[in-house]
Amino acid sequence: MSGKSQTNWWEGLNAKLEQNVPLSGLTWFGLGGPARYLVSPSSRAELSHVVRRAREHDITVKVLGGGANVLVRDDGFDGLVIRLDDPDFAALDFADDHVTAGAGVDLMQLAFSCARKGLSGLEALAGIPGTVGGAVRMNAGGRHGDIGDVVENIDTVDHAGQSGTLDHDRVGFTYRHTDLNGNIVCSATLKVAPDDPEAVLDRFREFWAEKKRTQPLAARSAGCVFKNPPGKSAGALVDQAGLKGTTIGGATVSETHANFFVTTTGARAAEVIALIALVRRRVKDEHGIDLETEIDIW
Ligand code: EPU
């Protein structure tokens, strides 16, 4: 951070701002340092004010969803972390052919609620942790589909605090990526279709069971560490390089799925980062392929 004075930069804002807040408890890896500032705006208007003010004072902003895909470095994040965990960002509105969900809504709960109501479309998201906002931001998904496949439009707040709506094509969904840049997702409208609730629930349970069978979901991890290179599976490449079980400090390449790194209590971000580097080097040596990280390193 640089530039303008950052002392009392939030003065006059209604949002309650905390300082030096540990992020380890807010991420699935359970490690890393504190956020210099953390705020949970209680409305979109408040979110806009906070974003605008942070920009005026050159404060870097990041949004933390469910923390399911984030690795926070040991020295923490020297900026403002925004959490959309206020009830104002948890609204849900079900219709026959779409559902609108606030950014803070838990993705699994949303997919399960739709299944129970006999609304089909989100079954592919069974077993994916995180919030709607985070899932849209990184186009979360798996073998059966990505969230971008069903997004009709999203409501956003941009860098400058301006509200807007982006339709599907403007979000730019590609594999685990969007072109949202600094646009913060406030809510998303997802396409669903009425179906027999039992049939939808069956698919939901089947996809979830498949994930539980093949992935270490009970361990502390951030899901897949690397993106799949075109036409290949990163997990299979790491596995074939003989790296399952490789450990640095409190971080280990999962024996269940080699694209998951699991951490133990007391693990440090530096150990996960060193393990990422080691695995990348070994996969490059073995297969000649450069793996790209999927997790977001703060
Ligand atoms: N495989 C191995 N060894 C391993 C892991 C996988 O040989 O350690 C093999 C499997 O046997 C299979 C192939 O690799 O033949 C693909 O594995 P899998 O079906 O588990 O899928 P994946 O490509 O590794 C992707 C997503 C997952 C998603 C699953 C299932 C990415 C990077 N990963 O994994 O998403 O859950 O499909 O739908 O796109 C995530 O993004 O965080 C994530 C977990």
Summing up helix and strand content along with how strands pair, one would put the structural category as alpha+beta
Average pLDDT level: 96
- CATH fold-level assignment of the largest domain: Uridine Diphospho-n-acetylenolpyruvylglucosamine Reductase, domain 3
Tally of extended strands? 18
What is the CATH architecture assignment of the largest domain? 2-Layer Sandwich
H/E element order: EEHEEEEEHEHEEEEHEEHHEEEHE
Molecular structure report:
- With 298 residues, the protein is an alpha+beta fold.
- It folds into three domains: 72 residues, 2-Layer Sandwich (Uridine Diphospho-n-acetylenolpyruvylglucosamine Reductase, domain 2); 125 residues, Uridine Diphospho-n-acetylenolpyruvylglucosamine Reductase, domain 3; 64 residues, Alpha-Beta Complex (Uridine Diphospho-n-acetylenolpyruvylglucosamine Reductase, domain 1).
- It is 26% helix and 24% strand.
- Strands 6-7-13-11-12 form a five-stranded antiparallel β-sheet.
- It is globular.
- The two termini are 14 Å apart.
- 45% of the residues are buried.
- The structure holds uridine-diphosphate-2(N-acetylglucosaminyl) butyric acid.
